[in-house]
Design brief:
Structural class: alpha+beta
Helix content: 10-25%
Number of strands: 5
Shape: globular
Order of helices and strands: HEEEHHHEE
Strand content: 25-35%
Mean pLDDT: 87
């Protein structure tokens, strides 16, 4: 969402919240998938499929990450319901954008892990268009907060 700098500057006061320099602002955004990569945590041994979206103004956001691994970092098995939810989170933006995109990632590929999914999703880069709602929970002392992404139906299907 483009900001009118003159209006923003005129309204700048002690109550103005610091804007985010990275990613999308909280709220609704229409964007295109511009990269899919394997995110590997530097502090632990977990990985995830990382989506990068770019909106019409050129702002990018790569905070949407989904791990479809069936094992936790400690080697224990991910509960079936949690794994099912993770697969849902992976597939939701694809299916909402175009039901035919579901065929890009089959269950065999998902069972192979995050790296296989990243490879399979490459064909959707610059093709997958989404409408998403981003919400960042309130920061609490000594707690890392992660934005929440909800994918919405495209406007033409409303």
């Amino acid at each position: 969402m483009a900001v009118d700098m003159e209006d923003w500057f005129e309204g700048l006061n002690a109550e103005t919240e610091e804007p985010s320099a990275f990613g999308f602002e909280d709220g609704e955004t229409e964007a295109t998938l511009t990269d899919v990569s394997l995110f590997e945590s530097s502090s632990s041994s977990w990985s995830a499929v990382q989506f990068e979206f770019t909106d019409k103004e050129g702002n990018t956001d790569n905070g949407y990450r989904v791990s479809i691994s069936k094992k936790k970092t400690d080697g224990s098995k991910v509960p079936a319901k949690m794994w099912q939810r993770n697969v849902f989170q992976l597939m939701r933006p694809l299916i909402l954008a175009n039901p035919k995109f579901k065929a890009v990632v089959d269950l065999d590929t998902i069972n192979q892990g995050n790296a296989a999914v990243v490879e399979a999703l490459q064909v959707l880069v610059d093709k997958l268009e989404v409408r998403l709602q981003k919400t960042t929970p309130e920061q609490k002392p000594d707690e890392t907060v992660f934005p929440e992404y909800t994918f919405l139906k495209p406007l033409e299907f409303d």
